[in-house]
Amino acid sequence: MRNTLLRPRALSRFGAAGALVAALLIGAPGTSQAAGTGPCDIYGSAGTPCVAAHSTTRALFGSYGGPLYQVRRASDGATTTITPLSAGGYANAAAQDSFCYGTSCVITVIYDQTSRHNDLTPAPAGGVGGADNPAPADALPVTAGGHAVYGVSFSGVMGYRDNSTNGIATGSQPEGMYMVTSGTHYNSGCCFDYGNAETNNLDNGNGHMDAVYFGTLCWFSPCNGSGPWVMADLENGLFQSDTGGSRDGSYTGNREPYVTALLKNNGTNYFALKDGNARSGGLTTHFSGALPTFRTGYSPMHLEGAIILGIGGDNSNSAIGSFFEGVMTSGVPSDAADNAVQANIVAVGYGDPSPVAAGTLNPGSTISLRATTSGYTDRYVRHQNDNAVTSVISSSSSALDKADGSWIVRRGLADPSCVSFESRNYPGDFLRHFDYQVYRQPMNGSAIFRADATFCPTTGRSGTGTSFASYNYPSRYLRHYNNTLYIASNGGSNAFDSATSWAPDVSWVVSSPWTA
Description:
With 516 residues, the protein is mainly β. The chain folds into two domains: 11-24 and 355-511, Trefoil (Acidic Fibroblast Growth Factor, subunit A) (Trefoil); 49-54 and 114-348, Jelly Rolls (Sandwich). The chain has helices spanning 15-23, 39-45, 93-100, 335-348, 399-404, 447-452, 502-505; strands at 50-55, 69-73, 79-82, 105-110, 121-122, 141-144, 147-150, 152-155, 160-162, 175-181, 193-197, 210-215, 229-233, 238-239, 259-265, 271-277, 283-289, 306-309, 320-323, 325-330, 366-371, 379-384, 387-392, 407-411, 419-423, 429-434, 437-442, 455-459, 466-470, 477-481, 484-488, 508-511. Strands 5-9-18-11-12-13-14 form a seven-stranded antiparallel sheet, with no helix packed on it. A hairpin with a 4-residue loop joins strand 13 (229-233) and strand 14 (238-239). Residues 1-34 form the signal peptide. It comes from Mangrovihabitans endophyticus. Keywords: Disulfide bond, Glycoprotein, Glycosidase, Hydrolase, Signal. Belongs to the glycosyl hydrolase 54 family.
């Protein structure tokens, strides 16, 4: 049966280990650090200034110290605005943690950092689907610039829009845009977009959109490999080239945890698509050439100037995805400016190790969990094909195995006195139980996910290490059984509830991570 039981518990239920976690949940914010030069400084100096700049992780101008985003908490409906730690710096996520402590928050505004005030708010109903929900504020914790910050995680029926913009391209005016997204959180739903769309939330025809898309919805063949791909949503089509399908046979998609996806369009006869690893290296151009002419309406374009994030122009809202930052420019940026912006993004260090000491249960620490059962002490909790399992990991294991066996400790999604475990190499994915088995899944913000992904530490049931009780099934603990992870009771009708070796099977050593 589906796990639906939620049981409140006293915070003292899990003793000293739980109290220690609770005491460390609201730490001092990281040292204030200015970024110096931001992407919008680069584009502005190149003659293609930003007319929209959105990010929940950092300032995109070196001098910007204004609001980044607003959150609203569930307990009383109050809101607060999150700003950079200093001008040009990284988001003060500790302010969000403090404001949302003991409850949940959603993101209600993503502020435009330009002077044009093109702020994004939850999208209203459109030609497809009703009004969109705001994204959960804590679903996508990440490190940037050595600071703990939050991206925006979309899990369907979520999206943002501004239909009354200033300075955004209309008609056949030229523009450029990029977003930093993730190659580990995507689907084939329509449409995970950031960019220019209709102002009435409807499909107004070919060429009325110009948005960068990232996902696995293949509109025109060929789409090489399994994706996800960067494409141009020009309305009534996701384009990889002037003929629709891919002209780059080597481009099979980008599954890096952090991806730069870029589109530029002169509005009359040219567009280009690029992507890159947002953590290292440069950009790769997958198409640069004519706008589509095999269908009418795209050359020239018929832009309307709304801005969308996470949805299609007609509010198609079945996509999932991740967003960390993005800008839109007036005019088509030069390749040199694009390259400089990519270098600036790489310098952020998205996903770099947390400054919190590794190998502890302090939120932000990166750990591995080693079994203590005799004969299995070389096995660690890892994810494999979305399942949580135990397998042998050693110094000679592959980099992938080591990454799969490393986890970031987060404050409990349902109870801040407990913990949740985020995948080290799949940002925003957490260990959660479903029908008693444990999986790696992206956080969707729901109450049941929060409960299923929260575990409360206590002294190891065998007297060794640490055991982790399920928040909503407190008599069940994380257990390995036949190399699969479950929440198991000490005796019961399920095979994985067997009392044999239960105590050592639910006791774990919290160790230094295989991947920092």
